[in-house]
Amino acid sequence: MTDKDLDDRALPPARVEAPPPSRDLLKAVEGMKPVRTRTRFGALAVVALAGLIAPSAVLARHVYRPDLGALPVGWVIAAAALWAGAFALALTAALVPRRGDVLPAPGRASRAGGAALVGLLAFTALATVQVPGVSLHPADAHLTLLQSCVHCASFVLEIALPFLLVGLFALRRLVPMGRARVGLALGAAGGAAGGLVLHFICPFAGTAHVVLGHAGGAVLAAAAGAALLPTLLRR
Predict the structure, then answer these.
(1) How far are the Cα atoms of 64, 66, 77, 153, 162 from residue 212, in angstroms, in the given order?
(2) Which residues neighbour 116 within 8 Å (Cβ) at sequence distance 6 or greater?
(3) Who is most buried in 29, 88, 168, 173, counting CB within 10 A?
(4) Could you tell me the pTM of the whole model?
(5) What is the DSSP code (8-state) at residue 133?
(6) What secondary structure does DSSP assign to 134-181, as a single string?
(7) Which SS3 state, helix, strand or coil, does residue 204 take?
(8) What is the rounded distance in angstroms from the CA atom of residue 82 to the CA atom of residue 120?
(9) From the CB of residue 207, how many other CB atoms can be counted at a distance below 10 Å?
(10) 3-class secondary structure, 103
């Protein structure tokens, strides 16, 4: 090793000048704007407002059940409050994250949706009220129990569909896991909204019809949400 080798090793490394940024990059950086923070209740408001259009229109234009005036006022209010409470509980759990969280909690959503459905099934099975001589049964309209239940359950599914579709759009980037459980809660909420409408317009007051057609329709809506949400979000 010579003195020249030592001198070369002591020299600092040569500086490499970085190329100037491209005009497109500078333009993109200059055009950047702050992203609006997602609110906890934004998705809930959008889905609720969009989904409630159809139920509101039906209640505004449809003929009400013939025995509505003869039913106990307290029971009518209590039943309506239960259907509305089940709707609000399930929809909020499906779309609103816990305080401090960013994403909805699938476990909480499925528990809330399941509790709402159990409450509706128990209430309709144990506390359905009818007025003899005023309230109608499927046979009075020349229908079987099955036919009447299919008719009302189909109506519940139609009311639930907007909640599922708009909820799907709102949750398309927010549910990486547990989609079936969130879908169950969304469907339960839509089903409860349909049951609330039927509470005022369905003329059939028999316990079997209300349990199978109204509460059963809500269960079917929840099952549809649990099946559809994971399938559609994978596309």
Answers:
(1) 20, 21, 21, 8, 22
(2) 85, 86, 87, 89, 90, 188, 189, 192
(3) 168
(4) 0.80
(5) T
(6) TSB-GGGGT--HHHHHHHHHHHHHHHHHHHHHHHHHHTTTT-SS-HHH
(7) strand
(8) 7
(9) 14
(10) coil
Cα–Cα distance, 48 to 54 (Å, whole number) = 11
Tens-place pLDDT, residues 112-125:
999 999 999 999 99
Q: 209 in helix, strand or coil?
A: helix
Q: What is the DSSP string of 32-100?
A: --PPPPPPTTHHHHHHHHHHTHHHHHHHHHSPPPTTGGGS-HHHHHHHHHHHHHHHHHHHHHHHPPPTT
* Beta carbons of 94 and 176 less than 8 angstroms apart: no
Banded model confidence at residue 217, pLDDT cuts 50, 70, 90: very high
Q: Determine the straight-line distance between the first and last CA of the chain, rounded to whole angstroms.
A: 68
Which among 171, 181, 163, 175 is positioned nearest to 91, based on CA atoms? 163
CB atoms within 10 A of CB 26: 11
Please compute Rg for the chain using Cα positions: 28
Q: DSSP letter at 31?
A: T
Which class for 158: exposed (0-12), middle (13-18), buried (19 or more C-beta within 10 A)? middle
